[in-house]
Amino acid sequence: MRPVPSALAASLVLATLGxxxxxxxxxxxxxxxRAWPEGTVLAVEDLPISAAEVDQASVWIERIERKATADxxxxxxxxxxxxxxxxxRLLAPEAREQALAEARAALEQLRSGRWxxxxxxxxxxxxxxxxxxxxxxxxxxxxxxxxEPGAWSEPIELPGSFVLVRRLELLPADVPLxxxxxxxxxxxxxxxxxxxxxxxxxxxxxLRLVIVDPAWRPLVPELLQYRMGVHx
Length: 232
What we know:
232 residues; 2 domains; 3-stranded antiparallel beta sheet
């Protein structure tokens, strides 16, 4: 039996830099007062972030950080899952739309039994990937955990790509964070896989984050606020 990852190890994986907010933070630019879609709490440039999408990702985080407060779950979901995907989307919008269209077309073929790709050595149609949340990535791990065996997921957006997954195996554990999975994964990149992470990280210094709902300001790490122009 493999050792259960400690809560400390999980916290290190999910750690974010500085979560405080200085009391003399500069006022937000006029964009914060514009008309945003209902439920918008933050935005990257003109791209809104809703509370609902952060809370959806928080469900996966809670399986790993079971004692975290609701605000801390939101902070981790925002900084580890939602915000990187939003930043990546702005780096290559046309390529992203093409990758999403390809993923949707592939999903329709997979679900209708018309997929023509050759199966792999173990019967998978894509790449076999296995491990816990650290190896699969939280969105894939969380989505696959909830899938019915053999069912294909909707497109999952990662920073720079979309993936389709189906669960092949699930190794139960005493605590959710120790669950391990084997998945069949098809990937549709819109940023170069070898440089996507670096491109997203560098873009934090060029793109502006808008605090639409002031209640969400404390949930954004102070360093990110400075890097993304919140303080002017």
